[in-house]
Write a structure and sequence with these properties.
With 133 residues, the protein is α/β, with parallel strands linked by helices. It has one domain: 3-Layer(aba) Sandwich (Rossmann fold), CATH 3.40.50.1010. Helix content is 58%, strand content 11%. Strands 3-2-1-4-5 form a five-stranded parallel beta sheet. Helix 1 packs across helix 2 and helix 5 packs across helix 6. The longest helix is centred in the middle third of the chain and has 17 residues.
């Protein structure tokens, strides 16, 4: 399974014609995409109205979701934050550390457009999905 960050989903929902969105659609059609509760939150927070919110919520609930493993995930996210911040430019998004921790715990590849995940992958065995152009 491939955990897709909200940075990918946003381009998909905006109907972008970028090659990266085409790669995402192929994964989606092959049932290879999953989310976690943090990506779910990020996507639904961007809804413009109640109708969009309800429709999107129904759709996202059809996608496999990996949930955090309690305090263990939170502590892994803290370790990610502290390690990366001590060695490189500061990681600014707590939610990204939680997304990365979920991917690490579940041995998932992460499909994203967010530079913070690349920083995390320098210090942790985070698998970044390599899409083909």
């Amino acid at each position: 399974m491939i955990l897709c960050d909200s940075s990918i989903w946003i381009r998909y929902f905006r109907k972008s014609k970028e090659p990266i969105v085409e790669a995402f659609v192929k994964l989606l059609l092959n049932d290879e995409v999953c989310i976690n509760e943090y990506v779910y939150i990020e996507i639904l927070q961007g809804c413009r109205n109640e109708e969009q919110f309800l429709s999107l919520k129904k759709f996202l609930r059809s996608i496999p979701m990996f949930e955090r493993k309690g305090l263990e995930t939170v502590e892994k996210a803290i370790t990610i934050y502290r390690t990366c911040s001590a060695k490189s430019p500061r990681i600014s998004k707590t939610i990204d550390t939680l997304i990365a921790a979920t991917a690490l715990e579940n041995n998932l590849e992460l499909f994203h457009l967010d530079k913070e995940f690349d920083v995390i992958a320098e210090y942790f065995p985070l698998k970044i999905y390599k899409w083909k152009k």
